[in-house]
Hints:
Blueprint (H helix, E strand, L loop, with lengths): L22 H5 L1 H5 L11 H30 L3 H25 L4 H5 L14 H10 L14 H10 L5 H13 L19 H12 L5 H32 L11 H7 L6 H5 L5
Helix pairs in contact: 3-4, 3-6, 3-8, 4-10, 8-9, 10-11
Amino acid sequence: xxxxxxxxxxxxxxxxxxxxxxxxxxxxxDNVLAQQHPQSTAHDExxxxxxxxxxxxxxxxxxxxxxxxxxxxxxxxxxxxxxMLARVSRIFEQLNxxxxxxxxxxxxxxxxxxxxxxxxxxxxxxxxxMIEYVLGNRNPNMLKPHEHMPDVYEKLSKELTRPSFYDEVxxxxxxTVDGDAEAVPAPQxxxxxxxxxxxxxxxxxxxxxxxxxxxxYELGEKLVDLEDYFRRWRFxxxxxxxxxxxxxxxxxxxxxxxxxxxxxxxxLFPELWHLRGEL
Length: 279
């Protein structure tokens, strides 16, 4: 070793880890980095696997943050809730950036390993489904792809029995504006949230008197911010799929681009978007 090379040990850095936890130990890196198993010899299959695995890790964090945000909301800790929501928006910014890397894969590249995927498809992601269920887009038909995993199926089914995050937001909206919990609409437990005129009317009250209802106004804008990133993620998904496979059917049997375009029409918090035309 050159005597002129910098030695971190001279500044107190620990260099021997036979008796202590190392970076790799803490992150279980050996396990994480051993989970990439290409099913073909195609060079770009590693990119495909890593991109989707890292996306699932970000989604795991998003679920963690949304669960904390909902808990904070139910106990009135709005400051903590706002922090968690802002973090989820940034998570989806990271998820959006991942499509830029995947789009470096050409149709010819993908064709070399597509058959190795079998009927597996991104729409089978149970973490993505949980994010949608927590936020309020609850399609019970999408439980079926997870029946072969009893633990996952149970978690998703259980989520459909409790108010979504947006249901809890609506409760806060009504109890603040009306001062009456009896006026709160019933939660939309096992169906996608559809716009309700009474909810939109309360949001309008908030947006027309932001000083009086500043906390609700800030919450509304954070939800719009979150859905904005979520919509961009869906749009980038559609664009990437069309760029790579055109209008072929998806590996999971969906219509591919047509199916994904249909998902672009889904609104998580419709009243907050429809409201803007009335202000």
